[in-house]
Each structure stands twice: as C-alpha cells, then as structure tokens.
Amino acid sequence: MKVYLLKDVEKIGMAGEVVKVSDGFAANFLIPNKMGLEITPANEKSFANKKKVIEQRKEVISTKTSMLAERIKSIKLTLKRKLHDGDKLYGAIAASEIAELLGAEGVSVTKNQIEFDKPIKAKGSYEVTIKLSSKLQPKITVVIAPE
After folding, report:
1. How far apart are CA 56 and CA 121, in angstroms?
2. pLDDT-wise least confident of 22-31, 45-54, 61-70
3. 3-class DSSP state for residue 75?
4. For burial by CB atoms within 10 Å, which of 52, 56, 134, 136 has the most?
5. pTM above 0.85, yes or no
6. Contact 18, 3 (CB under 8 A)
7. Where do the structural domains in the chain lie, given as residue ranges?
8. Residue among 104, 144, 109, 97 nearest 124 (CA)
9. Three-point CA angle 17, 116, 59, nearest 5°
C-alpha cells in the first residue's frame, strides 16, 4: 500500500514522503496514529504537488540542521561533580543535564535527542551523540572533572 507520511517514522521515511509499506502496517499503525494517509488514484496528484513544497522546505531545514551539527561538533562540555573512591560519581550523568549545558551554549536540543554509548558514572572524557535527524548525528565531548 502506498502511504503519504504526515510525520517522520523511524526506518520508514520522513514527513511528506510517499512510501510503500505493508497493508497491515499502514492499516493498523500509520493511519490510526495519524502518521500517514492512504494514497488512492483519486488523491495521488494532490500529494505529488504537496511533495514538491515539502522538498523545498526540507532543503532549507537540512542546511540549518547541518549548520547546527557543525556548531555542535566544536562544543566541549565540562561537568564538575563530587567523586568518591577516587574517580567514581555518586550518580550517573543524565541526558537532561547535557541538554541544559548545551542550552547555555546556545544550542537547543531535547533530552530525547541525546544518546549515551554507556552510562557516564566516572571521571574522564566521553563521546555523546546528539541525534538531530536520522542522518545527522554529531558527537560532542563531555569531560567529567572532580569538584
């Protein structure tokens, strides 16, 4: 079944794309959750016109996002925390803490966009991924130092 996506669906496509998915996935997930609309021969032309407009918007958004990604790559955050047993933290560093520090640097991201390879529970230098889109995922360096 051909479906016009209203929202970004991970591993399926971006909003505004026409994708071919199984009938069950479309009928049971995409359409009831208002993530997509079924394409019929009658409404296919209107979606083709919408697709052109969305492609233009995507180009503008992708350039802004790539500029943000370049800015994020250059950021190095330092967190000062109390340590015990030499180099262990009392608690793990949360994604919301990273989001707040990035906000102070002028970069607005949500805590859901921040991904850790493993929990940060000791002093040292760590790579943290910021998921801006499915393709753009810049990494920042987070340094944990003793207070």
Report:
1. 44
2. 45-54
3. coil
4. 136
5. no
6. yes
7. 2-63, 75-146
8. 144
9. 25
- pLDDT tens profile 111-142: 899 999 889 999 999 999 999 877 788 999 99
Domain 75-146 has CATH 3.40.630.10: no
Residue 52 scores a pLDDT above 90:
no
Which CATH number among 3.40.5.10, 2.60.120.330, 3.40.47.10, 3.30.1490.480 corresponds to the domain 2-63? 3.40.5.10
Q: 69: Cβ–Cβ under 8 A, 6 or more apart, which residues?
A: 132, 136, 138
**Exposure pattern of 110-128 as b/e (b: 16+ CB <10 Å)?**
eeebbebeeebeebeebeb
Q: Quote the mean pLDDT of the chain.
A: 87
Predicted pLDDT of residue 126: 92
pLDDT, residue 22, reads 95
